[in-house]
Write a structure and sequence with these properties.
Elements: E1 2-9, H1 13-24, E2 30-32, E3 46-47, E4 57-58, H2 59-72, E5 76-78, E6 82-86, E7 92-96, E8 101-109, H3 121-125, H4 135-138
Parallel strand pairs: 1-2, 1-8, 2-5
Antiparallel strand pairs: 3-4, 6-7, 7-8
Helix pairs in contact: 1-2
Length: about 150
């Protein structure tokens, strides 16, 4: 079984940022992308509230930028989904949906969040055009509709 110094589960902003810092520290991190490579922001059009993008950025572009930066510092990125974990003793053991298993000395869980919708057809139809799942992200667009 492969043993890693640093394993990161999740490939959203937190996962990629962890990969950047861990790689710069010489920990040779490996990111497993999980269910949604790039995280929830890949489902977002314009991101205006992330540092470093004064004019805003498209969600997929931002996540690609973070991914490229993590790769530049030596983070390895793999595509699989964690299905089980034994955290009872170090090194920790993680099992993936492809049947592989790895051990790791450091485990960073950066699996983020996912929007919870009601399942109505109109939610998909109007997503990004009035239907929102993130008040922090999208509240700005409705700022002039606030209570007096």
């Amino acid at each position: 079984m492969e043993t890693l110094r640093c394993l990161i589960l999740g490939s959203g902003p937190a996962g990629y940022t962890a990969g950047i810092y861990a790689a710069r520290a010489g920990l040779k991190p490996v990111i497993y992308e999980g269910l949604q490579p790039g995280g929830q922001l890949t489902q977002t059009t314009e991101v205006e509230n992330f540092p470093g993008y004064p004019e805003g950025v498209e969600g997929n572009q931002m996540m690609d930028d973070l991914r490229q930066q993590a790769l530049r510092f030596g983070t390895e990125i793999r595509g699989a989904i964690a299905t089980a974990a034994d955290l009872s003793q170090a090194p920790y053991r993680i099992t993936f949906d492809d049947g592989s298993e790895v051990a790791c000395h450091t485990l960073i869980i950066a699996t983020g969040a996912s929007a919870k919708y009601l399942g109505l057809p109109s939610e998909q139809k109007y997503a990004g055009m009035g239907v929102s799942a993130c008040a922090v992200c999208d509240g700005f667009f409705y700022r002039k509709n606030a209570w007096p």
